[in-house]
UniProtKB/TrEMBL annotation, chains A, B, C, D:
Annotated organism of origin: Paracoccus contaminans
EC number: 2.1.1.148
Entry note: cofactor: Binds 4 FAD per tetramer. Each FAD binding site is formed by three monomers.
Active site positions, chain numbering: R223
Binding annotation for dUMP: Q109, W110, I111, R112, E120, I121, S122, A123, R124, R196, R223
Single annotated GO MF: thymidylate synthase (FAD) activity
The protein, known as: Flavin-dependent thymidylate synthase
UniProt xrefs under Gene3D superfamilies: 3.30.1360.170
Amino acid sequence: MPLTPDQQSQIDAERAAAASTRRPVSEGMEARLYTAHPVLDHGFVRVIDYMGGDAAIVQAARVSYGRGTRAVSDDAGLIRYLMRHWHSTPFEMCEAKFHVKLPIFVARQWIRHRTANVNEISARYSILDREFYIPAPEQLAAQARVNRQGRGDVLEGAEAQRVLDWLRDDATRAYDHYEAMLSQDGQQGLARELARMNLPANVYTQWYWKTDLHNLLGFLRLRADAHAQYEIRVYADVMAQITRDWVPAAWAAFEDYRMGGVQLSAKGVEVLKRRLRGEVVSQEDSGMSKGEWREFEGVWG
Amino acid sequence: MPLTPDQQSQIDAERAAAASTRRPVSEGMEARLYTAHPVLDHGFVRVIDYMGGDAAIVQAARVSYGRGTRAVSDDAGLIRYLMRHWHSTPFEMCEAKFHVKLPIFVARQWIRHRTANVNEISARYSILDREFYIPAPEQLAAQARVNRQGRGDVLEGAEAQRVLDWLRDDATRAYDHYEAMLSQDGQQGLARELARMNLPANVYTQWYWKTDLHNLLGFLRLRADAHAQYEIRVYADVMAQITRDWVPAAWAAFEDYRMGGVQLSAKGVEVLKRRLRGEVVSQEDSGMSKGEWREFEGVWG
Amino acid sequence: MPLTPDQQSQIDAERAAAASTRRPVSEGMEARLYTAHPVLDHGFVRVIDYMGGDAAIVQAARVSYGRGTRAVSDDAGLIRYLMRHWHSTPFEMCEAKFHVKLPIFVARQWIRHRTANVNEISARYSILDREFYIPAPEQLAAQARVNRQGRGDVLEGAEAQRVLDWLRDDATRAYDHYEAMLSQDGQQGLARELARMNLPANVYTQWYWKTDLHNLLGFLRLRADAHAQYEIRVYADVMAQITRDWVPAAWAAFEDYRMGGVQLSAKGVEVLKRRLRGEVVSQEDSGMSKGEWREFEGVWG
Amino acid sequence: MPLTPDQQSQIDAERAAAASTRRPVSEGMEARLYTAHPVLDHGFVRVIDYMGGDAAIVQAARVSYGRGTRAVSDDAGLIRYLMRHWHSTPFEMCEAKFHVKLPIFVARQWIRHRTANVNEISARYSILDREFYIPAPEQLAAQARVNRQGRGDVLEGAEAQRVLDWLRDDATRAYDHYEAMLSQDGQQGLARELARMNLPANVYTQWYWKTDLHNLLGFLRLRADAHAQYEIRVYADVMAQITRDWVPAAWAAFEDYRMGGVQLSAKGVEVLKRRLRGEVVSQEDSGMSKGEWREFEGVWG
């Protein structure tokens, strides 16, 4: 359970407060606001503010004066058109802000998405909490054999136990020493900005992360993907559900054109056309490398 | 008067609608929402959405769970600290979206601020309205003599009249021909994407422009400045008033540290220190060029 | 002919100078350097500096110490892999800088690509040259009937002549008055920042434009595309040839995966799979809108 | 000593190779190219490519056709003018690419500078080296008492020894277990993307980091500053020397206007003007908070 009673009561207070606004409101997002959705063993994602919704996308595409009176189905059609033709700017007109608690090694992947605004708690200034990510047994995977960057079977028996013990013990000892170095009890106490270097990459940090819908979808496309590391994918999965509630029409278009879509190379188009004409095409005959052919067959058989 | 009755009634409908939200609300910004603030002869600025306020800045700086219960004066002090020490990320946590109608030559300056989201009406797709910026007589300034990039005295008499006549006649004729080229009455009609090339740089365009508070302040710092061209400064001035109503504490800090502040070079610091010790310093003796010295004396006498 | 003798001799001098460098060199790009490639009636594109090449992409992907000794074919394979899997950061490690002369209405489309560095000549500071884009007769196209944003048949006869006359006469008159307003002969002379508003959107401007290879390819993907307006596409076409000479392996991958590739939606994948199984699928039965189906059939028949 | 013989010989080979180029060359930067400048106990910075120099700044500001024949002193004056008036785009026309080896906790500060291109070695894909940052005894500072984010006196005696032992022992044990978890000797071997979570924040990573001169100066302004953490400042100090050799005129202007300059608030300007008139001004009387006054007095006495 990631929240202290004090934190939970602050969140409850935020959720209880309501105000009147002239701004457009997304009911799906209002229902999500402030709630901490648990992720991993100590992490969470919570939306803490948002701006716009499906209507804001179509208004921007039309540079409208008002909210418009067109049918919702027209709006969905326009949103599909914009997504299909890679019009990114109308999607940039919506904005969401998240409060995320996450292990540092996940934060290091996440921060590579540069078009976002970030405020992270500073370990120069504050003392981090004693919280580490320890994988659940079913996530303790071996190195993949084929793919240098992936997971294979789940570890079992003594090996699994050894890994869990080391992760837990090393993190505990590192944190004990972190505290002992910082202590000003009978000693000067090491500077926070130095002591933190002893903490492992599975210690939890927190940040506010704000981005526009276009870049959020770009993040989800890469991080809610099957090739993403499990520990970031679970964050992306929660954010995907939040996004679906926030902008249902944009989400449906995104699922169709991006998440469920397929990018074909010129060579891939050619092979499919030959197949549609009834030809049998082999890798040697396709112009593709073995790796490409494997990926191509993964989709088309 | 820049708005048609239909546009005004759409704006009135937007202002009349109210909804309940859990999001933080800025009363100063709610009062501004949707209203078209007139600028120049046919232009306007109107806020059409926003996110956050002064509280969002301090929450981000503290990575808080809730809205916090600290005194407003504490918040203002922290905001001043952040501004003084060039901490930009907490200010990025607020966002505002504007609908702006502006002459193309102003839009061309404005667009150079790259960290913003923009949707402009497309003259490939739509037909622009017959609206041009014609300067008011008191803005019809001569080329500055000292500064190659600035205005001198106001033109008078026959010269002023000639300029106004040319601006009006050329714009009118260009627009007449634009319409005539587009017409499909007894002819094919030129493509919109080509016909638009006949329109002068003082024709009005419109866009949605969205940015975060940090970048908005950066825009205002350059464009609400006395050295900015008058025709963009009047837009920045209106946006400055809106920003002041939106985030009063951030605005006060910005006025003190940026708009009213002065950047001294190392040489400038040295000269002031010598003056404080009672020394009389001349340009020759300052290490500054003549231009720098003139600017320095403009502030310090 | 876009260049004055003085400009041409400056370019010749740049091309004649050679220096020794430890940096990696792209022979294809060296051959292009500084030359003004003509575009439209008065425009040009010329590369004026560059950094990196195909090797820089693979070195960045491997975070290498040296230039590496791997075979060129290995490099090409890795570059194809990176392109196929949307790894953008290694392509960002190459940079190119262009000097471009282009009509203002083209510049207004171009500038929407925000991740670039730009220095444009300032019409607040300088006086623009008397040069306008007048379309060649075969480019004088009618408005498309189906597509609100496109061109139809070429205009002919009296209509074509009328359009050309108006474009030429209005531009000439506008420029005559621009000069007359600026003149300080017997009058004060209007400020440059004001006089420019009389110039039409087909007047030529110039800028330095610098971007990384990833963003350059993004620009080319949209602007060297058949749906782009002809007047910007001709610039993109020249830059595409330059890019091909600069980074042959990256260009080949880009042509295969982006320019010649096809993005299929989940619905499109489903339809193709049904077709591959021998099924006949109609639009009504596809889940696609009429517009989507038309685009789908455009590729797959 | 951070480099293996193989790495050193790759660097030597890069330095030995020379090619002819038409591009402008910076002799100061050529002398620096590829050399690994040692930083901290195992880190380094080395420039691996660059584009442009002082001349590129002035050419961009003038949108020139050629290299120009103006005097170097004219160029320096223009560069000073651009810096003084916050013209950032001409400085963006120069680009530099660095290869950096640095502890993860330093990398986490560094990456917050978003306008840069980065390729980091991936610990999902590769196995990190057994190298940790252990502070030199004279850098083992206590937490500052006044400033929550800073260092006080150097630790001494038993406390210092304890800290060094813990840092070394915990890092060693964490790395031993990292290796043991990865091992495929008699066991499956944990996935690399999981094993890395056991490594502490002082383990070294490497990246290619590329940015333009404007953003590089922004980085140096914050990170070569006395308030920056020592462990990032030493990197910034080396890069500052490299930058000085690369663009001497821009660097001189930067030192005068930014590094050695002072930002005065409106209140600060007012206080100085009163002092120049001979008045004695106290904090109570200044309108400044105690913190601001302390900082003000730090400069002006």
